[in-house]
Write a structure and sequence with these properties.
280 residues, alpha+beta, Thrombin, subunit H, six-stranded antiparallel β-barrel, six-stranded antiparallel beta barrel, 12 strands, elongated
């Protein structure tokens, strides 16, 4: 290191001369128009490249904002369309259910199914009418196609309905042609097949006969379609009868609630037999 500094001090004049010559050569080269043109061209290209990138970045930001704005508009439009379509569907269902029912519709309350619980045993429906709308426990629930079930629980604005496809549901029924009577229930399995008990082997029940609610029922008005007979098999004392239900529970949206059947004297009489036992 000592020798280097000594050499630098000794020959510094020559070194400075070399530096000055190099600077002079650089200025001479810069005076060349071609070199200046190339340098200017490179600077312009660099500036254009940077400007292009900046504009691209600005465009991307603007595009994202525009996409967000369009998304908000589309969401709002979709919400309006869905509301209009839902209202139109409800109106069509309302008109259909009113047009198809044979009874005086002023006696019925129209309700919408707002929730449902489906399982292999304890199916349940929830409708958007409660005691404020005149709904009471044990009212019959139906559609123009047939029997749906009965009201079991009532709150201010909603009611629970036990449908035919609940293993706890039972209703007295009668066949339209042969007048065969029995008790209809659902044993689980297929949601569109129910069974009729207590039809004796002496009955003249036939396949495809229409099954209706009977006047024996303690809650249901009579004459509501329940389904059609699809299978009849003899057992020891009674037929085993399968009925295809009239109502498609998988697509049920609106229902009718019939006025409460009030027959306390009749109910009391059929619950008590001569031995003091009570019927279910």
């Amino acid at each position: 290191m000592q020798k280097f500094f000594t050499l630098f001090i000794k020959y510094n004049s020559y070194l400075l001369f070399v530096v000055y010559c190099s600077i002079s050569f650089l200025f001479i080269k810069l005076e060349d128009k071609d070199t200046l043109t190339k340098l200017h061209s490179n600077v312009v290209e660099l500036s254009a490249f940077i400007a292009d990138k900046m504009m691209s970045f600005s465009y991307v930001l603007h595009l994202k904002q525009e996409n967000d704005r369009l998304m908000r508009i589309n969401t709002d439009l979709l919400s309006r369309v869905l509301n209009l379509e839902t209202a139109a569907v409800d109106k069509r269902n309302h008109e259909k259910i009113v047009a198809n029912i044979s009874e005086n519709t002023t006696k019925f309350i129209i309700a919408r199914v707002v929730n449902r619980k489906f399982s292999d045993r304890e199916n349940m429906l929830l409708i958007n009418m409660g005691w404020k709308n005149g709904i009471k426990k044990d009212m019959t629930v139906l559609t123009p196609e047939g029997l749906v079930g009965r009201v079991t629980t009532v709150s201010e604005h909603f009611s629970k309905v036990m449908p035919v496809i609940n293993t706890d549901f039972k209703v007295s029924v009668v066949s339209e042609k042969s007048n065969s009577m029995g008790l209809l229930s659902w044993n689980g399995g297929k949601e569109f097949i129910a069974q009729i008990e207590n039809i004796p082997l002496s009955s003249s029940l036939k396949l495809n006969e229409q099954i209706l609610t009977s006047d024996f029922s303690t809650f249901s008005i009579r004459g509501i379609p329940v389904g059609k007979v699809v299978s009849i098999k003899p057992d020891k004392l009674f037929f085993t009868v399968d009925v295809r239900l009239a109502v498609d529970f998988s697509s049920l949206t609106q229902v009718l609630i019939a006025p409460l059947k009030i027959e306390p004297e009749k109910i009391e009489m059929i619950r008590e037999n001569t031995s003091g036992e009570t019927f279910p």
